[in-house]
Amino acid sequence: MPAAPGLSVAALIVHILAAVVWVGGMFFAHQVLRPAAGLLDPELRLPLWTRVFERFFPWVFTAIVLLLASGYGLVFALFGGFAALPAYVNVMQVLGIIMMLLFLHLYFAPWRRLRVAVARQDWAEGARQLGQIRLIVTINLALGLVVVAIGGSGRYWS
User: Fold this and answer.
1) Residue 3: its pLDDT value, please?
2) Shortest CA distance to 29 belongs to which of 1, 57, 58?
3) Domain count, the chain
4) In whole angstroms, what is the distance from residue 87 CA to residue 158 CA?
């Protein structure tokens, strides 16, 4: 039992909510908004995506900070450090870090190029950059769903 069970419970709640915000946001963007916005002409669709990302990415950065802080807090509070981590926690940690690195690439490369293309009204380049973002979000969404499944079931693995 952790030394401060209330703190561990709070950290776990923060961890779960941060994951829900990030993965749920990707699911919504990929499975709902993308198909609906795909019907729009590029001069409407690309500025729409720019505004969506401007609102969503601060939430992703916040989720990343909260996931790291709460996750590593739980590593020490519940498991006494890295030496005693069960396999499922290590898998979640590795996949989560990959997701974070992919997001940072998305943010500092295709997202920046998308904003420049939209500002220049270069719709072809904007569409190309949005395609890059879609690919990264697709990968991150798949990884995020796997991490959620592991987080929910991992403690019951034999």
Assistant:
1) 55
2) 57
3) 1
4) 10
